[in-house]
User: Which sequence fits this backbone?
């Protein structure tokens, strides 16, 4: 019986890493799309990268459903199922924000003003660094190797930094001579980008709680 359980858990772990890999690919396409966006968001490459981000998020959803199916075939003890599924569903909110950001740019045909360009690139860079740290934290958690405390602290610091940049960008937008309607569009975009670090911090804390429960 224990041998059977071990094999199922090994397959489950492989699926979880496959899921994380798909999300990392979605993040990479999101990052490339934003780089293209700053140069020329109306080009075909931006549309292609937006579609790729969507496809990879959908691929991750399919893998998550496979994980769910496997877990409910007794691959994990009942007490663990809810924690793991809740964690994966929380992680999945991040690539959904990637999609929403790209769709805002694509559908509203927004141009990033020069006066916020530096801070725009910074909030993207730090937000994606949060995602990289979270990916590392989650992998450490599932491998049961290494400490996650330092990573939690770094994500918290980055999230606070993103909040500061977000407020500064919005203040500069509304202090500018930009068209009032475009101000609202840009505010919506920046708040949505700010959600990336917020959600990464929230998931990081969830990982920490599950990790503490596992040690009890």
Assistant:
């Amino acid at each position: 019986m224990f041998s059977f359980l071990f094999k199922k858990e090994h397959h489950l772990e492989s699926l979880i890493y496959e899921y994380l890999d798909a999300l990392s690919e979605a993040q990479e396409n999101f990052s490339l799309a934003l780089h293209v966006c700053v140069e020329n968001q109306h080009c075909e490459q931006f549309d292609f990268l937006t579609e790729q981000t969507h496809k990879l998020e959908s691929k991750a959803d399919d893998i998550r459903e496979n994980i769910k199916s496997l877990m409910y075939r007794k691959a994990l003890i009942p007490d663990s199922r809810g924690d793991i599924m809740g964690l994966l569903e929380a992680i999945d909110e991040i690539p959904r924000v990637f999609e929403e950001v790209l769709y805002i740019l694509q559908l509203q045909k927004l141009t990033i003003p020069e006066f916020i360009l530096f801070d725009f690139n910074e909030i993207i860079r730090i937000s994606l660094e949060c995602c990289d740290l979270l990916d590392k934290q989650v992998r450490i958690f599932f491998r049961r190797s290494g400490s996650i405390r330092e990573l939690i602290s770094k994500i918290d610091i980055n999230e606070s930094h993103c909040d500061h940049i977000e407020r500064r960008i919005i203040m500069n937008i509304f202090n500018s001579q930009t068209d009032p309607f475009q101000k609202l569009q840009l505010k919506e975009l920046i708040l949505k980008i700010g959600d990336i670090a917020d959600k990464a911090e929230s998931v990081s804390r969830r990982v920490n709680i599950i990790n503490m429960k596992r040690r009890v």
